[in-house]
Amino acid sequence: MSIGRNVVKLTSSKIAVLVLSFISAPIIARLFLPEHFGIFQIFESIAGIIGVITCLGYELSIPLGVNKKETSASIIICLLSTLIFTLLVLTAVPFSKGSMARWFKAPELSIFLWLLPLAVFIGGLEKALRYWAAREGRFGAVAWAEFCCELSGKLVNVAWALIIGASALALFAGHFAGIIFGILLLLVFLSRRLVSDIKESDLDLKMILTVAKKHKKFPIFNTWTELLNAFSVQVPPIILGLYFSTTVVGNYSIGKRLISLPMMLLGTSIRQVFFPTAAKEYIETGTLSTVVSNIFERLVQIGIFPIIALGFLGAPLFGFVFGEKWIEAGVYAQILSAWTLIVFISAPLSSTFSILQRQGTGLAFNIGLVISRTLALLVGAQMGEPRITLAAFVIVSVIGWIFMLCWILRNCEVSLRWGMKIAVKYMVLSSLLLLPACCFAWILDNMFLVLASLVFATILYVYGLYRFDPGVRDFTADIITRMLQLGRWNKKEVSL
Fold first, then answer.
1. Is the pLDDT confidence value at 279 over 80?
2. pLDDT category, 496, cuts 50, 70, 90?
3. pLDDT at 1
4. Which of 120, 143, 410, 464 measures 20 to 30 Å from 86, CA to CA?
5. Whether the Cβ atoms of residue 269 and residue 10 lie closer than 8 Å to each other
6. Residues 391, 314 contacting (CB under 8 angstroms)
7. 297 vs 349: CA distance, rounded Å
8. Domains in the chain: how many in total?
9. pLDDT in the model for residue 487
């Protein structure tokens, strides 16, 4: 399996999604109010916390199956677990929706909480399908599904707002329409092969229990690790909603979503390819140093420049592009930039905990993160200022993620000194290139000069990478070659 080829397949769709998102973002931001996004974000945070445990971590066992029988058993375990959690949530909603709506001071929320069981079910199903597609190398199918999911969701958002009226309901309609359409496409692309593999495996209860026991560390350690990590990520909007208002949550939601979008889209693609590729390399060679050092450097090169740009210029850019009502969201994006960068670099590499069979260590890291983050948010919230609350959260988060990243690099036999030199090198380079844009924004307050400077700095940064880094030149050449063949690969995969 070629890591360059598969990253290209996923990255091509991510780029298309990114372009679509940036084109639609100013339209959607001007149609909806911060409180609309606030209600949706609170729901998404609750669903996100529940969603990470729906498969009990057994989705990670799908790429590790030694044959079709083990892989099929892992898929069945994921689906059964998802169904059980869906029924549990369906049972709990009638008893909890009223209280939760009162806690967040959002009466509308009680109606939307009825959608939680649906969110849990489709989330678990999508997770199992994606990991099976990764094992089979069907990244083209995943790419098509992701793009169509985003496109259909945005179309429903805009059409609903223009025809019926902008509201939180329109955001929910677009979200569920998109994700359901994406899953249906995955099923169209994958179901025939998947059903065939499961039938040929001739599974029985004994085999399913054997596979469940073999990978028991995933529910014991990874489930709790993912739950804690999801809680630590989703706890800011929850605490902001409890202590402040849905407007504050909406500003946080847009700020975080837009600053994270380009980074997380690419980071997720790399992680989906990195895990099965790194697992295979570790099985064959007993080391992860080559693949980890390569991915780390590329993540640093991709992530530092745009995140530093948004960290310096978030507020004026948000006000110019989305309207003055979103300037506060730009301030939140500036505060969150450091956290976004370290997560972008570290999150794809965190799969090494599973590959190295150190799930317990990963769990310990996440316990420390969730406790420290929650305490930081609570202390900041007591001061009655959302910005201070977010700043406290970011400081603690960055320290925790840096500590985790150092552990990963050291245990993968990658030099910490080398990693630090790479990070500092591109941080200084990015800051110098962005200095003129910052001067135009802070001193002259001329957004057209700011945008022109940003474009020029971006061109210089990309040229510098290509001109002076042989690895980037080789990587770019491989990307161009693969992109030229991408249409033929995708067409072949869809026809299978």
1. no
2. very low
3. 44
4. 143
5. yes
6. no
7. 12
8. 1
9. 41
